[in-house]
Amino acid sequence: MRTSKVETLLVGGELDFSTPPQIMSKELLPYLPNGQQVVLPGMAHTGTFFGVQPAASSRLINTFFDTGKVDDSLYQPQTLDFTTANSFGKIAKVFLGLALALATVTVLTLLWMTWWVRKRGGFGRKASAVLRSAYPIILGLGGWFLGALIVLATMPGVPIDDELLVALSVGLPVGIGIYLAWAQRDWSAQSKGVGLAASVAGALVGAWLGFHATVGFMAMVTATLGAVAGANLMLILLDMVRAGLAEDHVASDTAADIRSNVRLEASTGAGRR
Predict the structure, then answer these.
(1) Distance from C-alpha of 224 to C-alpha of 230, rounded to nearest angstrom
(2) For the chain: N or C, fewer Cβ within 10 A?
(3) Which burial class, exposed, middle or buried, applies to 217 when counting CB atoms under 10 A from its CB (0-12, 13-18, 19+)?
(4) What gap in Å lies between CA 122 and CA 128, rounded to an integer?
(5) Closest to 46 (Cα-Cα) out of 23, 12, 73, 71
(6) Residues 6+ apart with CB under 8 A from 247
(7) For residue range 58-67, what is the model confidence (pLDDT) as tens digits?
């Protein structure tokens, strides 16, 4: 730091652990030959300097500007209230309640969707579109909460934001949910098996990629969005392949019918001769 002869007043709080006054004494004051430092008793780090004992703060600043002297005579030792608005116990209860609610909704939704496909044959276009686009976000967050609860209960050493935990707990329910919204009861077991595998695989890869796209809680959101995109992409590609195979099958059947008709006409013409 470059030395400055400008008269400077350094004000710090005795209980400021964010920017301790000792740092100003060691790292700033030696470079300010005309600087002075005031450490206010009982005061912690605050963004509203004039909001705490405003009369004393005004006296301190105005006197320094007018005379260059330090007058902290109006300050009284600040009392701190360490009582938090919400205790950790209350926060934990809220988190646990939210986690249990979303986890329960996720499990019940997947069970209901399975029952619907078996009993009703599948979802219509509008319902399928909603269940494949918007609702999987709830499934992803609920799946992560369920995975977090299981890990906290059985493997407390594993962090709840572990990449493998997030990819599995988000990708599995999203992939299964999107598959159930896509599947139809009348399809063959092979078609449904391939669709389930494709949807889950796409969701797992998308969740893993989405998790690494950002950090913090947003990583859970992007993991869910990545899982939704991955599962839908795989099913769209599968639909395109199935449509292409169906067209080839129709074309093959048409060609076979044409050849059969030609042979029939040829044999009929030969019989007439």
Answers:
(1) 10
(2) C
(3) exposed
(4) 9
(5) 12
(6) none
(7) 888 899 989 9
Q: Give the C-alpha separation, 128 to 182, whole Å.
A: 6
Q: Are 135 and 177 a contacting pair, CB within 8 Å?
A: yes
9 φ, ψ to 5°? -110, 120
pLDDT of residue 12: 84
Number of Cβ within 10 Å of residue 185's Cβ equals 12
Which pLDDT band, with edges at 50, 70 and 90, does 264 fall under? Answer: low
Biggest alpha carbon–alpha carbon distance for the chain? 131
Percent of the chain as helix, strand, coil, to the nearest 5: 70, 5, 25
Amino acid at 272: R
Residue 133: its pLDDT value, please? 92
DSSP state of 27: I
In DSSP terms, which residues pair with 37 in a beta bridge?
10
Angstrom distance (rounded) from CA 106 to CA 263: 60
Residue 201: other Cβ atoms inside 10 A? 15
